[in-house]
Specification:
single chain; about 80 residues; two-stranded parallel sheet; 4 helices; 2 strands; globular
Length: about 80
């Protein structure tokens, strides 16, 4: 279903977020998002991006660290 969705969705229309600020939450131990890739969004979004790293979390970030994710989002929104 994911492949079909990507093939038929206007994915390019969702990328970039126009001029809106972008908040990125990184799972520190995610094997699919290596540390050497963490700065990549800065190339696309420049100063619009704010990134935060959640420790002790892997690819299942939300169920692994729900309180840390919540705190990160609330902290970002309060800025």
């Amino acid at each position: 279903m994911q492949v079909d969705c990507v093939q038929h969705a206007d994915v390019a229309g969702y990328r970039g977020a126009d001029s809106a600020p972008v908040f990125e939450i990184i799972a520190a131990l995610d094997p699919f998002h290596r540390r050497d890739e963490w700065a990549d969004p800065r190339t696309s979004y420049g100063e619009r991006i704010t990134s935060t790293v959640i420790a002790d979390a892997s690819h299942a970030l939300f169920p692994e660290q729900p309180d840390a994710v919540f705190a990160a989002i609330v902290g970002y929104l309060r800025k």
